[in-house]
């Protein structure tokens, strides 16, 4: 008897404590909002006027915080935190490992005379020194200083987790190279602020700051924690490497928007309470397409805060799931045969005058403003599509992109047929000066019509990786396990670059004597012409699109190594340098880290698959085969040589079949191990990743097929691996 699986199944939900973890939600959830956040409100209460103003300036204008102010803030933070039972503090940052990092230090400080006090100073608030060598650095460590430090990011508020005060921070090497997700993001946000604010001077001189906004939608799976523990592949790789799909999958679509199981509901309720306290404004929750798959989405926020909130959320989701005896899976494709998980990133630009720049306005002037940002965004994606593709690449997201359930790896833009027609009209604008008639026509019939159009524009193309959804763009190909910062850094960098170029081009035309509006129309017309090939309104999942895209000259970078190779294109490296986001060395280091991570992931999967196949699958199959052999022998004994042949026919064919599959697995594993050794020996990271992708990964399939076949043959009682139907349908 394969004990782990059955022990896990026994502890299952039938036990009451797993279900009765009921959670009371206070009637007014809003009263909990930001309870554990050093929010503006709290700061106003705890800080002197001077310190408060200084923090606000740092948050809104990026101005420097002076030492004596930092001291005041530190003391205020400590007092506030201690009033809530906090004993420790940590710089909370997002290294390139993909998860968040913390190193807790106590406020407790011994002083002379055997006494002690609680102390926290400006020094400790501003800068700390974790051991940089234990985080990925892509070789920066070898060539530069080994040490790194974390630095307080005052634009994202401090918060309390348990009994620890967490201070959002960036992570950089001593020589100034960024070693995390946030530092480059902050640079990109500054760049787009500057570029968009400049462009806004054409439309509204009151605008002095433009802040990008992000609303993410997080998908995830929940699996009972006992069942999770019983699957070594889930534990070690975050996904199942084997497993026959259940008779019932998602064919009936009955899970989507169906009622949420009680146990899951309790998890969600507790999560929402925690989110409220931490200031994460979650609003929607529902089931997703696949069984045991769910989604959570907040109100959108400033990108920087939204990114922190998503990282924080993933962290607390995992903790709260455990309290409800669930394990949460953020892997993009934990189960074959059912949908994977993504993380849609809704992106827009907001002004300090309260406008959404991707929202059409009430008059033609506002709509020209809308069209300007709208077309420039499309142009940015057109120019830098491959960079956007690279920013969402990972071994786990490769399973999802292009698998008929998520957008393909081809980057295209969906804007809806009505807006598409508006752009076609704009494409016809006369070159140079416009006649008064044309101007009126444009105002009334093209630009003036946009709000009406959008009101009844219910187009929702779910197959596009980059879709306009009424007042924002939605990047739909981001993986569920990704840190949003990566795609957001690219998105804001390319928008900044594009808006900067646009400003130059329009100004140049104004110089030649064109009116401002004429100049804008002229530049937009050219952009639309150039970008047409990336606009696609049809079914992104279809094979026809892949063919059509090829004709249009769009790249289809199906795998991570392909995407990462493209990332090192001179055009992109230059862009990063020009925009002040990364130095050449930093781009290289990050590219290297991602390649290494890719190879490591596939390597681990290969080893885990081989171990399971050899140590669990083959022995179980042999075990069952022995039973069959006993049976056949018995039949022979009882019925004699002749008659037994008819009677034991099916058993004998099963015996042969099992042997064939065992041999497929054995040879498959031997081949896989050889390929893996060969890939491991390649020293160039790009080539190594390509090796893992093209020579190692494809060998998984044969082993899995043989094992999944055996799963259908072997007595259920002898099968060692917890089955899909058990993991996916237990509530
Ligand atoms: P759906 O796209 O599913 O129909 P919504 O339009 O309400 O739903 O928005 C989905 C997501 O878009 C939410 O997470 C929301 O926070 C985000 N969102 C809405 N407006 C903006 C905006 N201006 N900037 C960024 N994200 C936004
Ligand atoms: Mg959506």
UniProtKB/TrEMBL annotation:
Pfam name, any one: Gln-synt_C
InterPro entries: Gln-synt_C, Gln_synt_N, Gln_synth/guanido_kin_cat_dom, Gln_synth_cat_dom, Gln_synth_gly_rich_site, GS_Type-3, GSIII_N
Gene Ontology terms: biological process: glutamine biosynthetic process
Gene3D superfamilies with a match to the protein in the record: 1.20.120.1560, Glutamine synthetase/guanido kinase, catalytic domain
One GO MF term attached to the UniProt entry: glutamine synthetase activity
Domain GS catalytic residues, every copy: 181-617
SMART domains in the cross-refs: Gln-synt_C
Signal peptide positions on this chain: none
Domain GS beta-grasp residues, every copy: 87-176
Membership in a protein family: Belongs to the glutamine synthetase family.
Designated name of the protein: Glutamine synthetase
């Amino acid at each position: 008897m394969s004990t782990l699986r059955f022990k896990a199944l026994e502890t299952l939900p039938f036990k009451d404590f797993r279900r009765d973890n009921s959670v009371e939600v206070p009637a007014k959830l809003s009263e909990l909002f930001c309870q554990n956040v050093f929010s503006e409100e709290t700061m106003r209460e705890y800080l002197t006027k001077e310190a408060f103003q200084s923090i606000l300036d740092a948050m809104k204008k990026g101005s420097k915080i002076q030492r004596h102010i930092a001291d005041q803030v530190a003391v205020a933070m400590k007092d506030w935190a201690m009033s809530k039972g906090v004993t420790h503090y940590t710089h909370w940052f997002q290294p390139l490992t993909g998860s968040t990092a913390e190193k807790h230090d106590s406020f407790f400080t011994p002083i002379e005379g055997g006494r002690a006090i609680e102390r926290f100073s400006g020094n400790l608030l501003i800068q700390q020194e974790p051991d940089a060598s234990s985080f990925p650095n892509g070789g920066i460590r070898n060539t530069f200083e080994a040490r790194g430090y974390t630095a307080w990011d005052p634009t994202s508020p401090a918060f309390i987790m348990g009994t620890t005060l967490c201070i959002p921070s960036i992570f950089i090497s001593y020589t100034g190279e960024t070693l995390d997700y946030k530092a480059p993001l902050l640079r990109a946000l500054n760049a787009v602020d500057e570029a968009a604010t400049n462009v806004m001077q054409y439309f509204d001189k009151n605008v002095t700051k433009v802040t990008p906004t992000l609303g993410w939608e997080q998908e995830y799976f929940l699996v009972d924690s006992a069942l999770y523990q019983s699957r070594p592949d889930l534990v070690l790789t975050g996904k199942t490497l084997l497993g026959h799909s259940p008779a019932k999958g998602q064919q009936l679509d009955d899970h989507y928007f169906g009622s949420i199981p009680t146990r899951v509901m309790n998890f969600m309720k507790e999560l929402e309470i925690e989110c409220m306290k931490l200031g994460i404004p979650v609003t929607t929750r529902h089931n997703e397409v696949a069984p045991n798959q769910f989604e959570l989405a907040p109100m959108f926020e400033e990108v920087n805060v939204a990114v922190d909130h998503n990282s924080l959320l993933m962290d607390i989701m995992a903790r709260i799931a455990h309290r409800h005896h669930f394990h949460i899976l953020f892997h993009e494709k934990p189960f074959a045969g059912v949908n994977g998980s993504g993380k849609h990133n809704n992106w827009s630009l907001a002004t300090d005058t309260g406008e959404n720049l991707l929202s059409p306005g009430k008059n033609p002037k506002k709509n020209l403003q809308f069209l300007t940002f709208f077309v420039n965004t499309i142009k940015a994606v057109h120019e830098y599509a491959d960079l956007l593709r690279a920013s969402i690449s990972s071994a786990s997201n490769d399973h999802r992109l292009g698998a008929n359930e998520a957008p393909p790896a081809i980057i295209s833009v969906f804007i809806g047929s009505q807006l598409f027609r508006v752009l076609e009209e704009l494409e016809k604008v006369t070159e140079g000066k416009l006649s008064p008639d044309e101007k009126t026509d444009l105002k009334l019939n093209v630009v003036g019509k946009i709000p009406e159009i959008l009101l009844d524009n219910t187009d929702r193309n779910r197959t596009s990786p980059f879709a306009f959804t009424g007042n924002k763009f939605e990047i739909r190909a981001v993986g569920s396990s990704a840190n949003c910062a990566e795609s957001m850094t690219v998105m804001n960098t390319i928008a900044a670059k594009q808006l900067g170029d646009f400003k130059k081009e329009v100004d140049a035309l104004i110089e030649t004597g064109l009116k401002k509006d004429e100049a804008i129309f002229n530049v937009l017309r050219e952009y639309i012409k150039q970008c047409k090939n990336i606009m696609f309104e049809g079914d992104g999942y279809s094979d026809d699109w892949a063919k059509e895209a090829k004709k249009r000259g769009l790249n289809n970078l199906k795998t991570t190594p392909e995407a990462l190779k493209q990332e090192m294109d001179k055009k992109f490296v230059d862009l990063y340098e020009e925009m002040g986001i990364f130095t050449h060395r930093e781009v290289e280091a990050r590219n290297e880290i991602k390649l290494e991570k890719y190879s490591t992931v596939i390597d681990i999967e290969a080893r885990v698959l081989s171990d399971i196949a050899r140590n669990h699958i083959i022995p179980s199959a042999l075990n069952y085969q022995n039973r069959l052999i006993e049976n056949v022998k018995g039949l022979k004994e009882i019925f004699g040589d002749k008659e037994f042949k008819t009677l034991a026919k099916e058993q004998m064919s099963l015996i042969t079949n099992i042997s064939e599959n065992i041999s497929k697995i054995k040879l498959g594993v031997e081949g896989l191990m050889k390929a893996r050794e060969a890939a491991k020996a390649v020293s160039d990271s790009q080539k190594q990743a390509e090796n893992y992708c093209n020579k190692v990964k494809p060998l998984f399939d044969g082993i899995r097929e043989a094992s999944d076949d055996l799963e259908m043959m072997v007595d259920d009682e002898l099968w060692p691996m917890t089955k899909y139907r058990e993991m996916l349908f237990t509530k």
